[in-house]
Amino acid sequence: MNDSFARFKFRASKLLLACVARLPLRLGRLCGRGLGSLLVCFPNRSRRIASINIAECFPALSSAEQADLLRRRMRELGAMALELAHVWGASGQRTLARVREVKGRAELDEALAAGNGVIVLAPHIGNWEVIGLYLTECHSIVRSMYAPPKSRTMGQLILQARQETGAELVPADRSGVVKLLKTLRSGDMVGILPDQVPGDGSGLFAPFFGRPALTMTLLSNLVQKTGARVVCAFALPVASGYQVNFTRPDPDIYSTDLTASVAAMNRSVEQCARLHPEYYQWEYKRFKRQPEGVQRLY
């Protein structure tokens, strides 16, 4: 009975996403921004967390400027929600057809040509799902870690969408790390979302916008063990589609000192976020774990 209901829920959710995906992308974004504007007007978790993070990370901004950034972020959060429905509800090829512009592609091509494998550092900026799909257009073997959400239905939808164009997801555990190492040693590509709080024993504290943030050591360890090149990537909305961007990370990301490398990874994420602050995921509790004696934010 439970399995039958789970299958029904998955099919119903897939149908709903497919219906939303039929809407013109511009209309979907417009509706999403309207919904996002409501988040500014009424108390809610996303607004509260984003407000705290923006105040902490941009102390030089006036109160009015921080409020304006918060308003713009909530609008883009709403647009992002509708964009995800487009990505998860449409075919991968349809989403890729909406990539209107690619900046910095030479950075990725040069990294691949080096032959030691490539780690694509993809912060939570803009639509990171588009980056995962686009990478399969650039190289035949792309693997990334995947930790399923609490919702089994949502997990199935995300898994199906991300693997449709050929990417392979590996579990967020030791076996997954082994697969990523093998991928890089074969000269292939790995995608990593670097700005989430890691589990116990898999991170260390490093500055992020001037505040200690528990940060994953996975990327730095992979670089040190394989000599892989790192490229930053994010996808931004443009008229009726997306702009894919590739940039170089902070050079200290290649340091053999783990602490220095992890700090450089955070600076790389920070650099991308500063360029396009309204598209960054400020509603995530990035500073929820702090060193002993440091005041908690949330």
Rg estimate, integer Å: 19 Å
Largest sheet: 7 strands, mixed
Widest beta sheet: strand line-up: 1-9-8-2-5-3-4
Query: What is the H-and-E element order?
Result: HHHHHEHEHEHEHEEEHEEH
Terminal CA distance? 40 Å
Shape annotation: globular
Mean pLDDT over the residues: 92
Number of helices: 11
SS-derived structural category: alpha/beta
Total number of strands = 9
Would you identify the regions where 5 or more consecutive residues have pLDDT less than 50?
none
Helix content: 40-55%
How much β-strand is present in the residues?
15-25%
> What count of structural domains?
1
Looking at this protein, list some descriptive labels:
about 300 residues, alpha/beta, 7-stranded mixed β-sheet, two-stranded antiparallel sheet, 11 helices, 9 strands
